[in-house]
Amino acid sequence: MGGNARHHEPRSPSGKRLGTRTVLAIGPHPDDIEIGVGGTLLTLAAAGHAVHMLDVTDGEPTPRGDPQTRAGESARAAEVLGVRSRTTLDLPNRYLMDGVEARTKVAEVIRRIRPDLLLVPYWVDAHPDHVHASHICDAARFQAKFTKTDMTGEPWYPSRIFYYLCSHLRIEFPADLVVDVSAHFKTKTEALKCYASQFEVDGKLPVVDLMTRYAAYFGALIGAEYGEPLVSREPVGVTDIRDII
Question: What pairs with residue 50 in β-bridges?
């Protein structure tokens, strides 16, 4: 889905040209990416990066709505976020399991999109789908670089993977990075509102209030109005100390 963001070549605070990057955000179900890193995707797209989304299940069945409704909602949310594409796999909602088939399907999308950065769910969660999606993404990142394989696409290995918060647990999230999403947080809430069939309760959207409180908390940690936290299992490098807020 195309967006209306104005694109420019990103620069570091020192003025060095950074070049654009390709980003693939992966979620267990439609709406998880929006909850966890909707503001980050908007920030990246506004900076000129190529942003893509992948839902490993279509989220159905759910207590409310139907597949057609959910598909329409996720498509509208992708339009709001201004991403280049949104892919939905046919893996089973509620019964998502880490295994060769799931890893292969995700790896083939990675080989097609060829992202420099993966954004995937944090591996601690009450929802088994979220836990398995995290493990699937870890394995698919590695599997995507295989050469002697029947997988479609050419080998590719994303150089960086970050984990985002979309947990069903009330946990202390060990953020390594917090992205300042203040300029785009209102648009993130508009993307969340696209999922009325899932989130609306008595004419209200409690999830928006909850995400606002989370974002305000993490934003306060970096001196910003709103922030989205990320975790890395690998060291994070910088070329200029001024890149750190």
Answer: 22
Q: Does any domain span residue 87?
A: yes
Q: What is the pLDDT of residue 201?
A: 79
Tell me what pLDDT residue 216 has: 98
Question: What CATH number corresponds to the domain at position 226?
Answer: 3.40.50.10320
What's the domain range around 55? Answer: 22-234
Compute the distance between CA of residue 177 and CA of residue 227 in angstroms, rounded to an integer.
10
204 secondary structure, DSSP code: B
Is the model's pLDDT at 15 over the cut of 50? no
Q: Which amino acid is at 120?
A: V
Sorting pLDDT into bands at 50, 70 and 90, what band is 18? low
- What is the pTM (predicted TM-score) of this model? 0.90
Question: Are 122 and 105 spatial neighbours (Cβ–Cβ below 8 Å)?
Answer: no
- Give the torsion through C-alpha atoms of 176, 157, 125, 207, to 10 deg: 80
Helix, coil or strand: residue 84: coil
